[in-house]
Amino acid sequence: MALRLGYLNQQTAHWVLEPFVFDALMKKSMRWENLKEEHVRYDSHQKGVDMRIGLDIASMAFKKQVDQIILVAGDSDFVPAAKLARREGIDFILDPMWAKIRPDLHEHIDGLHSVY
Fold first, then answer.
1. C-alpha Rg value of the chain to the nearest Å
2. Can you tell me the distance from the alpha carbon of 6 to that of 106, in angstroms, rounded to the nearest whole number?
3. What is the pLDDT of residue 81?
4. In sequence order, which residues have a C-beta less than 8 Å from that of residue 36 and are 6 or more positions away?
5. Long-range contacts of range 35-44, CB-CB < 8 Å, 24 or more positions apart?
6. Cross-strand pairs, 20
């Protein structure tokens, strides 16, 4: 088992109003001076995680270190990695945590399973 952490891109991170708050301010049903801490959130995105996982999958497949990979994700960015692993004879199972996945990803996996 491996957990891959990326980094937060501070260049694109910023504070945002929750959508319902923005709507209320625009409709003037809420005033700026009534804003509370829970009305805003810091919006940041991790970068580099998909690439790290893809490299891990490729490395394990080429070195024949595993017979099966279970990926907990649902991102179509993993299509090339899944395709490569399957070409190398690895059983590739995807757990998208009950989320719908795109057909192009579904086409390149051996199994789809979400657990509680």
1. 20
2. 25
3. 95
4. none
5. 40/15, 40/16, 41/15, 41/16, 42/13, 42/14, 42/15, 43/13, 43/14, 43/15, 43/16, 44/8, 44/9, 44/10, 44/12, 44/13
6. none
DSSP single-letter state for residue 20: H
Distance CA 71, CA 84 (A): 14
Question: Would the pLDDT of 60 be above 90?
Answer: yes
pTM, whole model, 2 decimals? 0.67
Q: Which two tokens stand for residue 27?
A: 């409709």
Q: Are 15 and 43 in contact (CB under 8 A)?
A: yes
**Residue 68, SS3?**
strand
Structure tokens at 33: 């001076």
State pLDDT tens for residues 4-54. Answer: 777 777 788 888 999 999 999 999 999 999 999 999 998 887 777 888 899
